[in-house]
Amino acid sequence: MTTHEKAIETLRLKGHRLTPQRLIVLSCIAAGGGHKGVDEVFQAAKKAYPYMDIATVYRTLHLFKGLGVVTEVAIGDRLHFELTDPNGHHHHMVCRVCNGAFNLSPHYLAEFREVLNSEFGFEPDLEHFAVSGVCAQCQAAGKTKDTGPDDSTHNKEVHD
Prior knowledge:
- Helices cover 39% and strands 18% of the residues.
- The chain is of the alpha/beta class.
- It folds into two domains: 3-83, Orthogonal Bundle (Arc Repressor Mutant, subunit A), CATH 1.10.10; 91-159, Ferric-uptake regulator, C-terminal dimerisarion domain (Dna Ligase, domain 1).
- The chain is globular and about 50 Å long.
- It starts with a helix and ends with a strand.
């Protein structure tokens, strides 16, 4: 069963109607993988269903997030959404220059969790975690937060 199919099944099992609007928003998020901004979801949904409005997209994303069907990721100053990985959590490194999001395996955070727990008695919520910094491509191009992005940068890509 695909992640998209599992999301539909979750909606059914939790007693939510599978309205055309919900199915379209879900399909828009699933299409092409990666993280989608609200505007990107809205524009794609409006193409599929001309009567779609932005409020419906926001309400639907809020519902999906509450059900654990989608995960919200802050990339730059905007929220993006992706289908929640049913096989476990993954984390992100977000480039503050180009706004690229790079997946980070959870095993990198295991030691961090252990240190916080053993030294501070603190159990962190790391189900979804994003680390901000500058990616290798931007560093190689001499770009920093101060120089900012330009049109040649690899904006909003998601890298594995």
